[in-house]
Write a structure and sequence with these properties.
mainly alpha, 68% helix, 0% strand
Length: 450
């Protein structure tokens, strides 16, 4: 196939070069400036023949002959160029050819020729670079890196980060196949460092979704909450975290490389969970209420004095307080309501026993009886009974402990009761009978003998 020469020397065939140029590389026929027919090569410009240039170049190489050599090499390589490396060499030859011609001055005897060839060689260089870009191994790596970057920016779950890790792996692998001979290998190295850093970050993010690391994260949260837990609700939240941590570790497949690490962690976490359950049992309002109820019932069996009944009443009060704090969500809430009603009845009964055994209250009640008897007393037996009541009231007051809420009233009442006792004794002595304990007659108003 004959191609029209782009050189100013019409009629020179590209076949003279011994090269069959593809139609798309028409610009490359500029090498015909070194055509096979040396007798007509420079006819149009009245320049020396290519043979004379070549012979002169052997003795004293000049830029034009060197440019012709580079252009010829580019034309030959173009016929078989298939890879980016080959097209890179083609471009380098054209660059060398252009560089040589650009050093030729207009005054040089080949100056006009050089000026005509430069734009033609530049077009050939542009074409070679286009072919290089089409096959450039860095381009797919950059495309894959861009896709990986977009995936990681939008990643929110395990599947997203898995895709991101794969994308960065693909991008790094693409960079790894680029040899050091690549024209911009420093850029390749820079991108490789960047992509490997992004790959490591994505892998770390993906690890967060592995059950082993999720379990460890739950365990760490449980430990932190346990440091400040005080209520049953707070300890229950700690318990839930330990359960979740254990469940995550148990879900790890035996084939997983983390399975061997998970086994001792499961044992450790179960131990912590047991401790938490013990804490919950200690502060569970229902359990504490049951303990208080049992304590109150045991004290009731031997209670006689006011102090003992006050202890019983205190236990019932504590039990009621715990039962009232049992939340509706508690699995024993229905039982707690029934126990609360029973405890309130028992508290009322304990309060009545406290009043009945309170030495101060009993003294006041005894004194009231003595005062009432005094109003209708007329016999020796009546005054004896009244005196006995006052003596009992005084004795009861003397047994009131200092911790009693009404202890400040004890002393003045003892004084008043002693005066009343003395009066009763005087009245009995007026009956000419000694003041001795005796059984009152049936018609006497006295109820309690002295």
């Amino acid at each position: 196939m004959q191609l029209r020469s782009l050189s100013p020397f019409n009629g020179i065939s590209p076949a003279c070069l011994g090269v069959a140029l593809p139609p798309i590389t028409i610009a490359l026929v500029s090498v015909m400036l070194a055509g096979c027919d040396h007798s007509i090569l420079f006819t149009a410009t009245a320049a020396p023949s290519a043979e004379s240039i070549s012979q002169s170049a052997e003795k004293n190489p000049d830029p034009v002959s060197e440019a012709v050599t580079q252009a010829t090499a580019a034309a030959h390589l173009t016929q078989s160029a298939r890879t980016w490396e080959e097209w890179d060499r083609v471009a380098q030859h054209w660059q060398e050819a252009i560089a040589r011609l650009e050093t030729v001055s207009r005054e040089h005897y080949h100056g006009d020729f050089a000026q005509q060839r430069i734009p033609v060689y530049q077009k050939n260089l542009t074409y070679a670079r286009q072919q290089f870009d089409r096959l450039d191994p860095l381009k797919p790596a950059l495309i894959k890196g861009g896709r990986a970057s977009q995936l990681t920016r939008l990643a929110v779950d395990k599947r997203d980060w898995t895709e991101g890790v794969q994308a960065w792996n693909d991008a790094v692998a693409q960079l790894q196949i680029i040899p050091p001979t690549y024209p911009e290998y420093s850029l390749v190295q820079q991108k490789r460092i960047e992509y490997e850093r992004n790959l490591t970050f994505s892998q770390q993010q993906l690890l967060q979704f592995h059950p082993f690391y999720q379990g460890m994260a739950k365990a760490e949260e449980a430990k932190q909450r346990a440091e400040t837990a005080s209520t049953m609700e707070q300890w229950e939240s700690v318990s839930l975290l330990w359960k979740q941590a254990i469940a995550l570790l148990v879900s790890i497949s035996p084939d997983d490389d983390k399975a061997i690490l998970a086994a001792p962690k499961i044992t450790e976490y179960e131990s912590h969970l047991t401790e938490v359950h013990q804490q919950i049992a200690q502060i569970d309002p229902y359990n504490r209420a049951v303990a208080q109820v049992e304590s109150a019932r045991n004290l009731e069996k031997t209670a006689n004095s006011m102090g003992e009944w006050e202890a019983v009443r205190g236990e019932w009060q504590k039990a009621i307080a715990h039962l009232k704090s049992v939340p509706p969500s508690h699995d024993k809430s229905a039982v707690a309501e029934q126990l609360l009603a029973e405890s309130q009845v028992n508290l009322a009964g304990a309060g009545q026993q406290v009043r009945q055994t309170d030495p101060f209250e009993r003294a006041v009640a005894t004194a009231a009886t003595a005062s009432q008897l005094t109003k209708s007393a007329f016999s020796l037996y009546d005054w004896n009974a009244i005196a006995s009541q006052w003596q009992e009231a005084i004795a009861l007051l003397q047994s009131v402990p200092p911790t009693h809420s009404k202890h400040p009233l004890v002393a003045p009442k003892i004084t008043a009761y002693q005066t009343a006792l003395n009066h009763a004794i005087q009245q009995s002595q007026q009956g000419l009978q000694p003041f001795t304990p005796t059984k009152p007659p049936k018609n006497s108003l006295a109820k309690t003998p002295l």
